[in-house]
Amino acid sequence: MPGIAGRFSTVVKAKVSKLLDKAEDPAETLDYSYQKQLESLQNVKKGIADVVTAKKRLQMQSDKLEQQVVKLDTQARQALAAGQEDLARTALERKTGLQNELQSLDTQVAQLEEQQQKLTDSEKKLQAKIEAFRTKKEVIKAQYSAAEAQVRISEAATGVGEQMADVGLAMQRAVDKTENMKARADAVSELEAAGTFEDLTQLGDGKDDIDRQLAQLTTTSQVDDELAKMKAELGTGGAEPPAQIDAPAEPAPESAPADGGQSA
Amino acid sequence: MIVRIATEGQYELDDARSDELNDLDNKCVEAVEAGDESAFQSAYEQLLDLVRSAGTELGEDELTESQLILPPPDLSFEEAGEQFTGDGLIPD
Prior knowledge:
The complex is a heterodimer. Chain A is 83% helix and 0% strand. By secondary structure, chain A is mainly α. Chain A starts with a helix and ends with a helix. The relative contact order of chain A is 0.11. By secondary structure, chain B is α+β, with helices and mostly antiparallel strands. Chain B has 3 helices and 4 strands, in the order ββααββα. In chain B, a hairpin with a 3-residue loop joins strand 1 and strand 2 (9-12). The chains are: A mainly alpha, B alpha+beta. At the A-B interface, helix 1, helix 3 and helix 4 of A face helix 1, strand 4 and helix 3 of B.
């Protein structure tokens, strides 16, 4: 067949025979092949572990982004409640941006999940074939003359070799996809490190004005909340409410010595 | 004949279906040459479906060599083209 299937078959078959030809002494074919099979199985296990690691990393990033989305949503509500619509808008804009990022991360996690599943299936198939090969070689050795056994065993080895090449291909495709996603995960990490996703409620270097306003607003409303709570407590608990508030209305100017006294 | 779909599995297919296989395979090549991605996707999907539906999946412990090996089901149009430009799916 000269088509796509034909070309592909030729390439794979060349690969398989290359895989098996390395044992020049026919007597070694069996041991060599079996050893190669086990190596191939180890490789696919490692490949699966790599995919799982990449997936976990993306999941962690996704979790972080999700927390940020919740936080920005809260901040937007706070801003709105305080009558600062512009600020609320900014927070919501950021939230939308992060949500888009989050969506694409989730898609990637799902793709890696798919790769993981594929590799696990491949591993299972290879394992079954290796086991069949191990059994079959013993049967062949017992039933056939040395020369014929050699031929039959190398036929069986080719069967496993094809599976090995196939697992190799599945791994390669998984690795390619994982690499792409790693690059993306790195980009997200860089954004994170640059402060884009940082906690907006924390004041720090490199914060822009909106961050500060939001931070201040959060603090302010926390104070307001506490005040409101206190007022409520005082209102229900005490019998003489206004007197308490009026009393310390004019505190003594005691702010001056705080810093002035220390100066040497 | 034994046909493998790469990264998926091996199927035993009646030899009588090989003309159909050939036709679909040729359609894939024509689509690649014409740069027609959707025609390629459709022909390749039909090719895979033929093997899956007309074939019987081989047991996992079978050690049979395939007569024909199809590229992976998630083969992209670009990759299909690379099959003909020398850069195959499998590096040396």
